[in-house]
Fold this sequence. Notes:
A: 10-stranded mixed β-sheet; disordered N terminus
Amino acid sequence: MNTLTETISETEQQISFENIASEKLTPERKLAIDTFNKSGFPSLKDEEWKYLDLSVLKNTPFNHQAPACTKLTLSDIEKYKVAGADAITLVFINGVYCPELSSQQRDNTFSIESAESEHAAHWFGKLAKTDEPFIALNTAFHHGGLLIHIKAGQEVKQTIHLLHFNDSRQEAVAAHPRNLVVAEKNSKVQLIATYHSLNNFTSLTNSVTEFFVGENAFVEYDVKQDENEKALQINYVYAQQKRDSVFDISTVTIGGKMVRNNLNIALTETGGTAHLNGLTVGGKNQTVDNHTLVDHASPHCESFQLYKNILDDNAHGIFNGKIFVRQDAQKTNAFQSSKNVLLSDVAVMNAKPQLEIYADDVKCSHGATTGQLDEEALFYFRSRGIGKKDALALLNYAFAGDVIEKINNDALKADLLKLLAQKLNTEIEFEG
Amino acid sequence: MSEDLKIIDEVTGSDYKWGFVSNIEADTAPKGLNEDIIRFISAKKNEPQWMLDFRLKAFNQWKKMEEPSWAHVSYPEIDFQDIIYYSAPKPKKTLNSLDELDPEVKATFDKLGISLEEQKRLSGVAVDAVIDSVSVKTTFRDELAKLGIIFCSFSEAVREHPDLVKKYMGSVVPYTDNYYAALNSAVFSDGSFCYIPKGVRCPMELSTYFRINSAGTGQFERTLIIADEGAYASYLEGCTAPQRDENQLHAAVVEIYAHKDAQVKYSTVQNWYPGDKNGKGGVYNFVTKRGLCAGERAKISWTQVETGSAITWKYPSVILKGDHSVGEFYSVAVTNNMQQADTGTKMIHIGKNTSSTIVSKGISGGKSNNSYRGLVRIGKNALNARNFSQCDSLLLGDKCGAHTFPYIECSNPTAKVEHEATTSKVGEDQIFYCNQRGISTEDAVGLIVNGYCREVFNQLPMEFAVEAQKLLAVSLEGSVG
Amino acid sequence: MLSIKNLKANIEDKEILKGLNLEINPGEVHAIMGPNGSGKSTLASVLAGREEYNVTEGEVIFKGENILEMAPEDRARKGIFLAFQYPIEIPGVSNANFMKTAVNEVRKSKGLAPLDSKEFLKLMREKMQLVQVDKTMTQRSVNEGFSGGEKKRNEIFQMAMLEPELGVLDETDSGLDIDALRIVADGVNALRDGKRSFIVITHYQRLLDYIVPDFVHVLYKGRIVKSGTKELALELEEKGYDWIKEEVEI
């Protein structure tokens, strides 16, 4: 495979393919790169991106063609296996699936194949459209992604863990993980995705995942974002839900310099339920932006959003939650809650809930609160001999608790609680 | 059986001794309002000079003021010169039997579970043993007097306890406060006066007394309740029986003064005549009710269940002056047909560590409009003030409206103010669900509405909670679908 | 027990049921399947007495009486129970309070004395075990904040409390995973006493593995076009509805 390098011209941020064999450059990819080059990266003037300063992206010469799986051994990755002893681990390095580092499949309730296969083309790109610049970039440069297909009526007993690494040890890599999950009628599966850096340099992980949730299927997707402090992560999750299906997604963001999550849930048929949960623990120089869109396109659907931010130092949290209820979507129940705690005077939170409701028999509510921790409670702890640092930690833990509770995987929960304790700089052991 | 019910039983069971009182004063003042009328009123009531002076000052103030117009209600202009400001207390119109009673009123009495005896009493039917309100009053007063509690009519208090009246009247609602307070201060007729001495806990609901003593007029009532240090009293005003009144305008003033560690609970269950289906002929209810928590740790609670009246304009408030004082407001306001209500409360936080709770439940049915207006004001020295407000609206059917106007004025950064508002609808789906479980539509509405109001009903003295529930059921007949 | 003859019903002038016939004897379990829009929910709604639906022709005889003229609460008191596809939330009214009112209304209509609090609690505890409903659920407001599975379980709990003669289950399995499905099915099976009949309306054949029906009917374009036994359900799951549609069009 030829290596591709990118050319960024001085006046416009154009990205192109060079020295590439013609059979690799499919028409879809060419179209995608052309689409990207028309608009370039989003700027601060774009309403949807106005709080994110993407200049570092534009100024760093990334390698968008990730090298093949680098030299990692099974023991290297052992400590990242947080989904429990039984889990099926699928390892991705720079977005490319590495079978030799992954678990051998244990049962036949589901199958995995390349996201570039003809079979996958059935679903590929049906939800994630290239008019979004980052999706265009991902569509152009992705490779090594997977289609995970759960068969009708099957319940996958083991958790499927997608373990992502960005390896920018040699150069700044822009990884483009691209995965598809299809859950057929009446199936049930739990997937976990964790993101890590193998190095301490600037990197970009631009991940796109499309979920197709069939009739009466149950899909749980838990995401842990823990890349290094110079890392940039853009994460797109699309879910299309059919009749009576349930989609639960929980995103916990601890690491990364700048993280942007875009969730797009479409409740296309009656009786669907979606739960979106998010917890961000932000510290020095971190910016975490959570954008959600829930589209109620059919009657009798329910959606619940619970997003919490704990922001310390000069961290910057953003939440933009949009709920769209179409005219025919009667008997919709849609709830959204954004709760935020600022631990310092220079932390910043921007919250923008949006409700666009066109049906008249619905129950919708949204609430946002931002404030400091309860002084009374803090004093109460201290009066019982608990030091200020630990008291703060306990209060924060209590605050974050209900989001972590939503995750139905004990091993991951324990791991997150440990991480939380670390980030909050306390030795107290948090218990689930 | 509770204390007060026992007393009533005794009195009503015994043979009446005095016969029917028949000396009725025939005097009535001419229509209109001017200084002469005020002097006339004062003279008729044998008031001392200082009381007359107060009235005149108030009247002069009123002349300078303008009628308020900001409420979310509309009503035809009131001609203040077209009202009689003094009318001698008339005995209740007597009927020979309940058959002469308006069948609609009788049906309501039956539904509310009011006993026949009481029905007769309330509608003025001559009974074999005529109840003289004087005798009943005396029995209660003796019980209370043993504890040092003063409970009498306002006029009596002016004569018998002038020092107390002088000291406290107008201390919570000065006549300069608003248009209707000024008017009331000038022409008030009568009302209740209550004083609870230091450390005394009033043993009975000061309510039953009031029910029996419902005098005919009461257009411009004036009530003053004073709880001295550490005292406790629970006062209940009103009654569930529909009160028709030719007097359209009611402008009452209620003042509550709570000293250090005192607690006063004031409950109102009111069912004014709402007028006909088109709202014509109903009562205009403009009331100024205010409590002052003057001392530390004082507590004043307003609980009200209001239905009826064509236009209601009242905002019971609490001024939290004493440190650690507490104000509460629990309300269920029901509107149906063409009624309009604009009610709410004001909590004014002045002292340190004060707290207030507001739970307002509005229920709208028919084509009515229900507005809640709440003000929470935190003064700049009100350290650590806490407020929790919950304003809920329940819409029955889809032709009614509910509006909420919460105002939060906060001048102190240590304050914690929380506000929640929810709107829900009792729709056909819920009624059908109940039907499919064997519950009739009427019972379903009752079930749902009572669940919704439970929090407020729990604050009412027990007998009234039960009546209030029934009252709601009656008021909401035919409101869904 | 239930005899439906030539039932025609419409909503907002659109005819949905176009002459439906069905006979149900005591103790029988009849499953009704059909593609979207065939009229499954309409049938349930018409049996329960929803006013939005107009019955233009036909009769529904339940225990010897034509129930089409009866109000929904009267049908309920006579012994028809509908487990809703989308159970309704009633904030402020606890499940216990709701059930007590309903149970006593049904008893009243039968000339029985109402249950007092103690007797009612005993009944409730008995039935709670049936569907694995725990104590906290009964204190909560009816269906408020319940997950999909909890709502459906609550429907079966209510059915157990009211002891109807005919239970109509409208897509009780929609939105349930296997574990929840099993609990609900066990609850229903526990109520099969040889006298009580059930109409089980389902979109997914899977439920019928657990609640084994005596008869399976296919509802298509407002009519029952094919009847069979539980094998028919398996065939439908495998082949879909196209072959039935073809058969009918011919």
